[in-house]
Amino acid sequence: MDTKALAIKPSERMAVRASQELKDREVVFVGIGLPNLACNLARATHAPQLFMIYESGTIGTVPARLPVSIGDPTLVTDSLAIVSQADIFQGYLQGGLIEVGFLGGAQVDRYGNINTTTIGDYANPKVRLPGSGGACEIATHSQRVLIMMRLSPKTFVEKVDFVTSPGQRMESKRPSPALGKTRKDFGLPGGGPVKAITDLCVLEMLDGEFTVTEIYAGVTREQIQAACGWKLRFASELRDVLEPTPHAIELLRNKIDPDCMYL
Amino acid sequence: MSDGTRKPKLNPDKRVSMREAIAECVKPGADLYIEGFTHLICFAAGHEIIRQGIGNLTASRLTPDLVYDQLIEAGLVKKLVFSWAGNPGVGSLHALRRRSQSDSATKLELEEYSHYGMVARLLAGAANLPFYPLRNFKGTHIPEVNSRIQSVTCPYTGEVLATVPPLHPDVAIMHCQRADREGNAQVWGLMGTQKEAAFSAKKVILVAEEIVDTSIIRADPNRTLVPGIVVDFVVHEPWGCHPSYAQGYYDRDNAFYVKWEEISRDPKTYQDYLSEFVHGVKDRQEYLKKMDQGILHKLKARPRKCEGVDYGY
After folding, report:
1. In sequence order, what are the residues at sequence separation of 6 or more whose Cβ sits closer than 8 angstroms to the Cβ of residue B123?
2. In a domain, B9, yes or no
């Protein structure tokens, strides 16, 4: 494929920008879709020893093809270890070994609370979404969480309809009504969401709230604000997101996701 | 199970047909648990339950996947206990979605956890404990919609931890690569919650790609995930997981999972599928004959053997 001929897609920008967040030898809990592309791009470029763990129980994973599901057999072959799901959630996540977790969802708020459960009332939802899966524990235990979602007023909302995965500040009645509002108050062990990589900009958690810190070339502040459901804070010094290199785009299109499953 | 004892199952030959195993173990109104996290999901068992029309089920699984969605579309599920309901990597479970939104006339009862919450329920069940503590759910709305998630104060540190009750399915169905006639099951690749489910269930149906002599099992005891003493019935069912997979035997039929989005979106094409591939065949062998043989050939695993280890002393 002639990679120069096609304009760079929003999904490609997101995968490339997210890959830059990963350091070599970091332990990352990889999700299917764009996070998987970002992690495998990092592994193919600046982070060859990226330590990838998938929820299905594969440790030190080196997929030879694009996994279409979280339990694809290509994740098993040549990995360092295969463990039960009890081990994944107890030993690896709750045990505090995960340095980076990836999350996305149908709704996110300025504190990084994520909804993947229902749109509308829980008992009579407008849209029934898949639910937590491992997202709640990834958000609870990962040392830092990266969110990958397209920016839109429907997804970046003032208030999420349901908190499936905890962000930096939450309200909750149960299990204990006396619990406070910040992660520390709740006793959440991990660091929670630190960045949201979107198709228009990068948001960073500054003073406990998602703040625009980087903008893609050609995108305006007005466009970004129009695509967000709350009044956004912009950092005083905004940085440009560098255009992906031709090498990164070539890897994504020809090696990592050649059939455009997620691009 | 309430008195803390359990009758070990030592019958040396537990082999029966899938039809007999399902008829014997899955009764109307049963709590069902079909195991398999992407890997080793026994569709052959799900299809047999649909053929026998065993209804009013409480169906528990982390990921309902297509196998439970088909039971739901067939009208056999009363309640779903789960943690992630989607078509993995592809999209929605449409029978479930149609029966869980506000405009649904035949609404399904849902009880949801996170994956860790479900795993913890099985750990409590397998260990015969009244609950399992986990550092989870704080700051989320999940406990607000599921009153079975409670909390406990740690007697040593004072920390408040979430708790979940044990899961004790009436029947767990698990698929493995190989087993002997007694049901000593060897599994490699993803292990999901096979062991915890087998130990927490009242009855276990073990389905195997291959039945081997006990000497093969004894030659590599570390690979035995579930021992025969918790297994009630053994079913030999090659390709019993398609469109899921069995590592070393056949690949996941990803193209089918993608195509399923289209088949299941429309109730008419969904029912047509069940008529043709479930009701329209008498067993797994007939299902396989109906399939495009080219696809089966393509899915067949290419060998990737590992060298054994030395158990000598």
Report:
1. A86, B129, B132, B196
2. no
Domain limits at B49?
Answer: 18-130+165-290
Q: What is the ipTM of this complex?
A: 0.96
Residue B141 lies inside a defined structural domain of this protein: no
The rounded mean pLDDT for chain B is: 96
Here the CATH number for the domain that contains residue B252 is 3.40.1080.10
pLDDT above 90 for A177? no
- Candidates A39, A20, A44, A26; CA nearest to A244 is A20
Residue listed under structure tokens 């509002």: A181
In A, which residues are within 8 Å of B112 by CB distance? 117, 131-132
> What pLDDT shows up at residue B155?
98
Residue B266: CB atoms within 10 Å: 11
- Residue B108 covered by a domain: yes
Which residues 160-219 of A have a C-beta within 8 angstroms of B?
A: 162-167, 170, 172-176, 179, 183, 186-189
Considering CB atoms only, which of A82, A133, A165 is closest to B140? A165
In this prediction, residue B2 carries a pLDDT of 54
Chain B nearest-CA distance from A82, in A, is 6
The amino acid that residue B6 corresponds to is: R
Query: Would you call A62 an interface residue with chain B, using a CB distance cutoff of 8 Å?
Result: no
Put simply, the answer to whether A128 touches B96 (Cβ < 8 Å) is yes
pLDDT in tens, B99-110: 987 677 778 999
pTM attached to this predicted model: 0.96
Architecture, CATH, for domain A10-256: 3-Layer(aba) Sandwich (3.40)
Residue B26 has pLDDT above 80, yes or no: yes
